[in-house]
Amino acid sequence: MVTVQPQVKQQLSWGLIPAAGVSASAILIFGLLNLPAGYAVLVGSLILAFIIDRSLASDLLLIGIGMGIISTISVAADISYGNMLLMGTVLTLAVLVPFLIDRYGYKRRTIVFPIRTGQKWSTLERSYLAIVLVLGWTILPFYFIGSGAYQNWPAINTPDEIARLFVGVNAVGIWDELFFICTVFALLRRHFPMWQANILQAVIFVSFLWELGYKEWGPLLTIPFALLQGYIFSKTKSLPYVVCVHLLFDLVVFLVLVHAHNREWLQVFFY
Questions:
Q1: 3-state DSSP helix/strand/coil % of the chain, to nearest 5
Q2: Could you state, in order of their start, the residue ranges of all structural domains in the chain?
């Protein structure tokens, strides 16, 4: 087995049509919860990809399989024990199944999770972590509380509920990077320039986050976040770094949600 490097092709190709179709299907499946229409667009896009470029079709199929697995459940925020177990299992399969097909079916290493890169984080990269915290503290309270989006998450009052929210927020944050960046983005990078692959993965990423609860004007936050995560990963090739960025942002999300549901707690935000 060999590690597959991105195959950067011309700026515009016919393959963009089925790839955009796969991304658009995510809007229907996760954003609008219209599964029949979403599946129809997804299947039609895969068929078109097979006609245009079988290599592209094989990679879009892995993305489609992952999306299909996710779509078998609702990913709306629910921290009940049963739902956390169900969601954890399904999201794990959405990463594991494409990975196993890539590794043992296609016999290659396109989907990888680069943990040990051997490179130290630069001063700029370390500084960006602090910037993420400041931006999160500044923007997220205004978004969640000002728009009422915090109500998309269940009320949390007891230590047990707070602990489950903390685990859930962080687990999904890690999974986001494993699926949208290390899987979807990596597969798309084999066929398209970075900026195109990044936009395509961001559409799927943001659609998932919408169903999760980042609604109202949430896409104004999640779109640049998804694009930045793809860009940062393309530069650093470091899963730990993008995960660290995501978890720092999610730490503020967690604290804001706790405060939003219990205004007398954590009175350290301005909105």
A1: 70, 0, 30
A2: 16-261
